[in-house]
Structure to design on (459 residues):
């Protein structure tokens, strides 16, 4: 497939856009779904083989590459001539932005497997609402082919299936998948199927399922609504939306009699007033959450509530209370052997506790102790937990800064920025900006200058 002028021009065009090979594969998959409602199997390894000339490009992928890069096959060196139709430079068009918004969610849907088919009747409604929220409807006339590709039939919009045990099991499987995707997926892409999931669960509940299926649906709704709240608050800076999702989660958990999920929803809600320095209200939510746990004791959840309290007390300027809460969190986790494993409770364990402890001791000025805790947290945290890793890295960098190691601190924050490039996370980006403000007195240093270059995409 190569010519005498060299290998295909795929790598050159990919690098102009700052994409990795995996990102190019994802862009192609999204475009195939958006433009042709077609799912394609493509990965970074296939892209690498194209770029080396080790594998030919089929007609299907040739067309998708031409559409994606807005060039013809000849320019890509997949044909005899080379005529470029448009320049790759400049900001994306309105159509490109909307295509990316739709395509990102479509790519996630593709990763959900066969169980994801249950969401399709509701996906278009969610996409449409998102477009309206962006105030983009005035431009949709020019995007009719794109939007039309997603338009479901009448029967699709009115059918979410029946609340059978198999359908409920599919929804539980999807909830598991969302949790796995959360750690490394762009939040705007993941939010669309999550919201469609909640709408689907509502459709099923309105059909009056049998008591056993109703309880499972309510527990599933609580679990997914909590995840939606986390996406809205921690990832997308939308506290109002997060509050609505957490309220939905709390109501569903209470109706299902699931005290632990009810506690989770309330504790997550506490972060909202805390972010606005409403610490009295935040601690009230935590007290209410602890009452739920008292009704169904569970050491790991009790430990997490204490760890969350430590963060609230730290930010409220009460280091003694924060460190006392860390001690309670450690004790609860130590005494939790034999506690039932909860499918939805994947965001806390002994490793995350060390992260909470590192933050509390760092803000209390106990930097050596903080460095030890953060080192343990970073050493044991799964590589897939890129969002949490970014936060722990910034805290570790702050410890280095207070030890006088500016160069090392900036290097570590650069690593944190690299983590956030894999998956957007507003909380992590905020923590990086706080660090940048702290090193402002050294803004002319080489270390800070290099860091600034890495942080341009987080601005």
């Amino acid at each position: 497939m190569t010519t005498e002028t060299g290998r295909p021009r795929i790598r050159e065009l990919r690098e102009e856009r700052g994409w990795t090979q995996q990102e190019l594969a994802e862009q192609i998959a999204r475009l195939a779904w958006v433009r042709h409602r077609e799912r394609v199997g493509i990965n970074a390894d296939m892209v690498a083989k194209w770029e080396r000339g080790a594998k030919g490009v089929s007609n299907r992928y040739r067309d998708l590459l031409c559409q994606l890069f807005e060039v013809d096959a000849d320019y890509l060196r997949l044909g005899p001539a080379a005529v470029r139709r448009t320049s790759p430079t400049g900001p994306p068009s309105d159509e490109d932005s909307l295509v990316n918004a739709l395509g990102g969610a479509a790519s996630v849907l593709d990763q959900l497997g066969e169980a994801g088919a249950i969401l399709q009747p509701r996906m278009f409604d969610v996409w449409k609402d998102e477009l309206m929220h962006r105030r983009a409807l005035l431009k949709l006339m020019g995007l009719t082919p794109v939007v039309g590709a997603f338009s479901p039939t009448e029967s699709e919009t009115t059918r979410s299936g029946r609340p059978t045990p198999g359908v409920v099991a599919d929804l539980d499987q999807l909830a598991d998948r969302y949790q796995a995707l959360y750690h490394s997926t762009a939040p705007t892409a993941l939010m669309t199927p999550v919201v469609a999931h909640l709408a689907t669960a509502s459709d099923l509940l309105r059909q009056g399922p049998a008591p056993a299926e109703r309880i499972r649906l309510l527990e599933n709704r609580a679990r997914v609504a909590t995840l939606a709240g986390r996406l809205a608050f921690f990832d997308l800076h939308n506290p109002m939306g997060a509050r609505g999702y957490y309220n939905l989660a709390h109501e569903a958990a209470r109706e299902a009699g699931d005290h632990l999920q009810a506690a989770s929803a309330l504790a997550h809600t506490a972060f909202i007033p805390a972010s606005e320095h409403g610490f009295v209200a935040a601690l009230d939510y935590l007290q209410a959450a602890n009452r739920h746990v008292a009704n169904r004791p569970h050491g790991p959840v009790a430990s997490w509530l204490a760890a969350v309290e430590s963060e609230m007390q730290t930010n409220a300027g009460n280091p003694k209370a924060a460190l006392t809460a860390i001690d309670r969190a450690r004790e609860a986790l130590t005494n939790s052997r034999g506690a039932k494993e909860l499918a939805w409770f994947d965001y806390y364990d002994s490793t995350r506790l060390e992260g909470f402890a590192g933050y509390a001791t760092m803000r209390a000025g106990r930097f050596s102790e903080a460095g030890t805790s953060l080192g343990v947290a970073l050493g044991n945290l799964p590589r897939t937990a890129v969002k949490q890793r970014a936060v722990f890295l910034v805290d570790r960098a702050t410890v280095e800064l207070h030890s006088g190691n500016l160069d090392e601190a900036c290097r570590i924050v650069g690593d944190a920025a690299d983590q956030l490039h894999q998956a957007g996370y507003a909380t992590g980006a905020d923590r990086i900006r706080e660090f940048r403000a702290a090193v402002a007195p050294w803004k002319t240093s080489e270390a800070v200058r290099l860091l600034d270059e890495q942080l341009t995409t987080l601005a």
